[in-house]
Automatic annotation (TrEMBL):
Catalytic activity, reaction form: oxaloacetate + GTP = phosphoenolpyruvate + GDP + CO2
EC number: 4.1.1.32
Quaternary structure and interacting proteins, as annotated: Monomer.
PANTHER family xrefs: PHOSPHOENOLPYRUVATE CARBOXYKINASE, PHOSPHOENOLPYRUVATE CARBOXYKINASE [GTP]-RELATED
Name this polypeptide is given: Phosphoenolpyruvate carboxykinase [GTP]
Keywords from the UniProt entry: Cytoplasm, Decarboxylase, Gluconeogenesis, GTP-binding, Lyase, Manganese, Metal-binding, Nucleotide-binding
Listed GO MF terms: GTP binding; manganese ion binding; phosphoenolpyruvate carboxykinase (GTP) activity
Family indicated by similarity: Belongs to the phosphoenolpyruvate carboxykinase [GTP] family.
A Pfam family assignment: PEPCK_N
């Protein structure tokens, strides 16, 4: 079958990569767009696309003085977050998707989605985005190509990834790449006027781990449509990492410098909307400490020849939760956004062409809210959707660490796991060793947030903050984590494993208030973590791990009720006993796949808690 002659641009491909050309042609034939555009990533292209999006009503240009080259977008009110119910891992064997993922056989999913894609780009432009996750000068650059009919996705991908001409050139005519197919599922009839945010009620976010392919349909927002992010860098990459002996994790990466000028690198995994961006950009309140940012959402980690675990950030931008971001909580994010070149989605618009969201100081007297309605401080509704986001280049972060762009990565000294729990989990706990740390990660629990469609505030297990992102059987994933810890302490070139900690910034008092001030004050916890690495801070053994000894956590100058401090550090044996049946039920899900050492950890915990 040959392409219809009406598809303009199909034959003007700036590449001779045969596999890529064949795929682009096949998709064009299936989806029948009006034209095909190969994205070059230039500022001219950005200008053209944003002008078009403004004309289409998808974007509103913000006040040039306050927010240069920045835009306000509103989605369809039904397309506001990742759709976990509609996310599938289509492994050949259902067992390889495991008990935590939705599954459909690859051939069946491809049949269903091919029907949906047929003609789905009619009346639209099909964009081809060559991109690279991580530095382009890496020894083995991690290429992807996203085909999309959403110009909003193209602009977002330009912020979030390295993309365009240079990437395509580097791919040559044979480089491997992950094909990422995305369609809004909103074809236009001749003469039909478009809506500002096209999408489809039917949504599929599908992954084919064996063939390393991604097919997405029906949603234009966030992780559903920016396919380099969760789909590639976590779900597909986690399957690659399992096969190749590395880790693809939902982690921030930060650099800490102590008053003695010693540097440490920390990676931290918290579930969506549980504090990664804020910790990654933290302004320390403890004098003499410095924080620099390397990444805020995803870390790829592999052991180096020196036995240390090196982390790189595959992304190029920040896609951060807007509400709660303020000069008081995250001044470095505010400074990053002040430089412009950003897209704000589902926040509120001020009358003078700036943006506002809940938590950003006092509300103006009048706003246009995320649904496009008038809003005043008396309104009953939030001005911004709880999962509204800013999309901004990470290069604008004033505390970006220079190593950020180094393909070698940075050697990780400590890994933090954390969740959002109003009770039970202390502010900080140190794991006894790697296996205990993996146990803490595997049993991590958190209250659900607005980052995914569905109920908010429900406690669920979210292992390593990866529940929605593990691209294979989670039992095998735990086994992979255990295996990664093997080979420590047996020779000169042995592994030097990071120490593992478990944190919880979100414990609350009986009155519902947060017991710990959080944000910049979390530097106090980081100080204790570093001092534990240095063997300089005291800890006490509890049944669940080591917590700061009385006086070991620096609370100098902090206005904190001693009773609150005690409460936030408290290990309540009754609360922990109540967790045991939940953990048992969780582990049972994985059958034979669950590593025996994790059952042994649970047994040891039960013994320490005096549970039968
Ligand atoms: P994703 O981008 O969805 O992966 O989220 P994230 O993990 O990067 O979370 P982020 O840092 O954006 O924070 C999410 C929400 O938690 C925001 O509303 C923050 O203001 C709030 N938050 C972050 N850190 C703290 C903290 O230390 N204490 C409290 N109370 N809230 C926090
Ligand atoms: C998350 O939900 O963890 C995010 C936002 O970082 S999204 O890109 O939509 O996945
Ligand atoms: Mn995230």
């Amino acid at each position: 079958m040959s392409a219809p002659a009406t598809v303009a641009g199909l034959d003007q491909a700036p590449t001779s990569h045969a596999k890529l050309l064949t795929w682009v042609r096949e998709v064009a034939e299936l989806t029948t767009p009006d034209s095909v555009v190969w994205c070059d990533g230039s500022s001219d292209e950005w200008r053209r696309l944003t002008d078009d999006l403004v004309a289409a009503g998808t974007l509103v240009r913000l006040n040039e003085e306050k927010r240069p080259n920045s835009f306000w977008a509103r989605t369809d009110p039904t397309d506001v977050a990742r759709v976990e119910e509609r996310t599938f891992i289509c492994s050949v064997d259902e067992a390889d998707a495991g008990p935590t993922n939705n599954w459909l056989a690859p051939a069946e999913m491809k049949r269903v989605m091919t029907d949906l894609y047929r003609g789905s780009m009619r009346g639209r432009t099909m964009y081809v985005i060559p991109f690279c996750m991580g530095p382009l000068d890496a020894p083995a650059p991690m290429f992807g190509v996203e085909i999309t009919d959403s110009p909003y996705v193209v602009t977002s991908m330009r912020i979030m990834t390295r993309m365009g001409t240079e990437v395509l050139a580097k791919m040559g005519d044979a480089a491997e790449f992950v094909p990422c197919l995305h369609s809004l599922g909103a074809p236009l009839e001749p003469g039909e006027t478009d809506v500002a945010w096209p999408c489809n009620e039917t949504k599929y976010i599908s992954h084919f781990p064996e063939t390393r392919e991604i097919w997405s349909y029906g949603s234009g927002y966030g992780g559903n449509s920016l396919l380099g992010k969760k789909c590639y860098s976590l779900r597909i990459a986690s399957a690659m990492a399992r096969d190749e002996g590395w880790l693809a994790e939902h982690m921030l990466i930060m650099k800490l410098t102590s008053p003695e000028q010693k540097t440490y690198y920390v990676a931290a995994a918290f579930p969506s909307a549980c504090g990664k961006t804020n910790l990654a950009m933290l302004e320390p309140t403890v004098p003499g400490w410095k924080v620099e940012t390397l990444g805020d959402d995803i870390a790829w980690m592999r052991f180096g020849d020196d036995g240390r675990l090196y982390a790189t950030n595959p992304e190029y931008g920040l896609f951060g939760v807007a509400p709660g971001t303020d000069w008081k909580t995250n001044p470095n994010a505010m400074r990053t956004l002040a430089k412009g070149n950003s897209v704000f989605t589902n926040v509120a618009l001020t009358d003078d062409g700036d943006i506002w969201w809940e938590g950003m100081g006092d509300p103006p007297a009048h706003l246009t809210d995320w649904k496009g309605e008038d809003w005043t401080p008396d309104s009953d509704e939030l001005s911004s959707h709880p999962n509204s986001r800013f999309c901004t280049p990470i290069s604008q972060c004033p505390i970006l660490a220079p190593e950020y762009d180094d393909p070698k990565g940075v050697p990780i000294d400590a890994i933090l796991f954390g969740g959002r729990r109003r009770d039970t989990i202390p502010l900080v706990t140190e794991a006894r060793d790697w296996v205990h740390g993996v146990y803490l990660g595997a049993t991590l629990s958190s209250e659900t947030t607005a980052a995914a469609a569905g109920k908010v505030g429900v406690v669920r297990r979210d292992p390593m903050a990866m529940l929605p992102f593990i691209g294979y059987n989670a039992g095998d994933y735990f086994g992979h984590w255990i295996a990664m810890g093997k080979g420590a302490g047996d020779g000169a070139a042995d592994k030097k494993l990071p120490k593992i900690f478990y944190v919880n910034w979100f414990r609350r008092g009986d009155d519902g208030r947060f017991l710990w001030p959080g944000f910049g004050e979390n530097s106090r916890v980081l100080k204790w973590v570093v001092q534990r690495l240095e063997g300089r801070a005291d800890a006490v053994e509890t049944p669940v791990g080591m917590v700061p000894a009385p006086g070991a956590l620096d609370v100098d100058g902090l206005d904190l009720d001693p009773a609150d401090l005690a409460a936030v550090l408290n290990v309540d044996a009754d609360e922990w006993r109540a967790e045991i049946p939940q953990v048992t039920e969780w582990f049972t899900k994985f059958g034979d796949k669950l590593p025996g050492v994790l059952w042994a950890e649970l047994d040891a915990l039960k013994a320490r808690l005096g549970v039968e």
